[in-house]
Structures are given as structure tokens and as C-alpha cells.
Amino acid sequence: MGGILSAIGLLFGKLMYFIYNTIGFHNYALSLVFFTIVYKLILLPLSIKQTKSMQRMQELQPELQRIQERYKHDREKLQEEQMKFYQEKGISPTSGCLPLLIQMPIIIALFYVIRMPMSYMLDTPARAVSYMALVSIRDGDLQNIKTDMEIKDPAKDNLDDKYLQDFFQELTKRDGYVEIKLLDIVDRKPELVNNNPYLDDSFKRMLNEFDLKLFNFFNLGVKPEINPGKIAGDPRTYIPPLIILIISVATSFLMMAQISVPNQEKGKDGKQANAGCAGKGMLWMNPIMSLMFGLSTPSGLSFYWTLNNILSFVQTKVMNTFTKKTDDTKKEGKKVAKVNNKRG
Questions:
Q1: Cα–Cα distance measured from residue 81 to residue 178, given in angstroms and rounded to the nearest whole number
Q2: Regarding beta strands 218-219 and 213-214, do their DSSP bridges make them parallel or antiparallel, or are they unpaired?
Q3: Can you say whether the dihedral through the CA atoms of 21, 24, 28, 32 is positive or negative?
Q4: What is the mean pLDDT of the segment spanning 191-198?
Q5: What is the DSSP letter of 260?
């Protein structure tokens, strides 16, 4: 599974790099915005299907409530009657979940791109990354590195290709955020790139121009921190990612509240009819997932999630209006047809 997600990550990295070099204007945050728009356009047919499914489920809630009330003392019969009802109406209570399920591997694959942009997006040679890491370790800029391999001095020791390749594998396995840390060091010490013998001029220029910051304030490569001591020690670094995370969770809740079945009444037994992915349970699941993923990954993922939520909110609003107008037109057409038939 990890190999498949890594392959998808490489594909996303290539797409991100293409956007970065064209309509992204060499701006990482702007590239993420356009990437999210492309992703939403690709999933648009599924989203339309999800919206129609949600609306259909909302229309059928009164009938589902009556079935629930009728068989409230017989759970097995209730499930049987509900399934029969869904089959008769030609719907599935979980059909609206598909876009949400598809989103999960996309988020995990995007996580690879965000935490390892030099490998997945910029296609930087592994030996060049290893050289940067070794220089940073020697100079004390990259600390707390745990490895079973010998840490060589680039100025004194022989660095053959096998050693550099193996060191890269070991390094990224032990610390998944090492590339983010190195890019942060490059921002302060460009000589880490300029003096790298394993990079040609095009790579040097690209890495020097690469910036993970949004408005020169939000560093999308930094992981949110909830430790008050760390936040107080470096508020400029840790408060912005926390702001992005809070916005991500809030927009996740608003987006799910929008698609949840409104005014879903409870039966006398205190239970609600099954609303599939429009149910109240999903109202909290997405924000909780957003919080859990956001706390353990660079804030670039929370930024993506926020963009996705905002676009989903707008998209659902537009589609709800459009599909409602279409349904009203069809109903009006049927009424006219009945009146004409009666006259005839």
C-alpha cells in the first residue's frame, strides 16, 4: 500500500511542479491552491452524484422515520425494511461517502509531497540531499539525528555514491521531515546549496528560489505545536501553523454541517434514521480527522485541507441551487402534463 501511495505522491509531485513553474508563478502556496482546484475539477462528476444523493436522502427522511417507528422493537426487521426501501427507491445510503473515501489516499499521498518536496516535487538527487544533511549535521544546524550509519565529514571523508544513497534512505526513514528542515536551513544559509557539488546550476537556482512560506509569514513546512513552552519560546514559528490548523478544523465542520441532513428528527426510541454520509456522525468525523492529521504533519496539509473545504462549501452551494432548480422545473413540468391530460 505504501508503494502505491508513494507512486501517487510522485505523480502529484510532478503535477505540483508543473503548476509551480507555470500558473503557480514559483509560489508554493499558490501552487497548492491551483492543485486543489484541479483536484476538485477531476472529482466534480462524483461530487455532483454525492450532492444528488444527499438531496434524495433528505427527501426520504420522513418515510425512513415512519419505518423506524413501525419496527422500533425489531432491529433485524428494521434493517431488512430499510434495505428494501432503499432498493425500491434505487438509492444507497453510503453513495454520498465515495468522494470522502477517495479523498483519504489523496491526502496521504499529498502528505508525501508536502513533507519531502525535494524528492517528490523538485526531483532533487538523493546524494545532494545527503550532502546537505551531512554539512548541516557537521555545522550543528541539523540536530538530534538518529542513525546507525557512520556520519562522515564532507570536507575530510570520501563520500561515494553508495554511501550517500544509503544515508539518504536511512535519514528519511528515521526523520520524515528532514527535507523540510533542510529547506529551512537553506533559507538561512544559501551556501548549503551553492557549494553543493552534486547539484548543477539549474537545481541550485530552483532550490534557492523555492519558498514554503505563505505571505512570508505562514511557513507551510512547519508542524503545528501545542506545547505552550515551545510556542512561547518561538511564537513567530509556531503560532501561524496553529492558526492554519484551527481554520482547517473549523472549515471542516462547516463543510460537513452543510451536507448533513437538516432537522433530522429522532424517533421515540431516541434513534435517528440512517442518513448515510449525511448523518450527524459524519459531522464530527471529518473535523476530528482534520485535527489528527494536522497535528502530525506540516501545516501545508492543513492549508490544503482548508482550501479543499472552502471549495467544497462553494461547490455544494452552487450545485444545491442548480439541482434544486432542475428538480423544481421537472416537478412543474409533471404538474402541467397532468393538468393537460385531465383536460384532454
A1: 55
A2: antiparallel
A3: negative
A4: 96
A5: S
**pTM for the structure as a whole:** 0.76
Q: Give the separation between CA 336 and CA 342, rounded to whole angstroms.
A: 10
Calculated CA dihedral for residues 261, 94, 33, 214, nearest 10 degrees:
70
Cβ-contact 306, 251 below 8 angstroms: yes
Amino acid at 127: R
Is it the case that residue 325 has pLDDT exceeding 70?
A: no
- Report the pLDDT value the prediction gives residue 3, as an integer from 0 to 100: 79
Per-residue confidence band for 162, with pLDDT thresholds at 50, 70 and 90: very high
Which amino acid type is present at position 77?
K
User: Residue 213: which H helix or E strand, with range?
Assistant: strand 213-214
Q: How far is CA 113 from CA 11, 35, 277, 305, in A?
A: 9, 12, 29, 14
Burial 76-87 (b: 16+ CB within 10 A, else e): eebeebbeeebe
What type of residue sits at position 78?
A: L
Return the number of other C-beta atoms located less than 10 Å from residue 325's C-beta. Answer: 10
Over residues 197-220, the mean pLDDT reads 89
CA-CA distance, 142 to 144, in Å (whole number)? 7
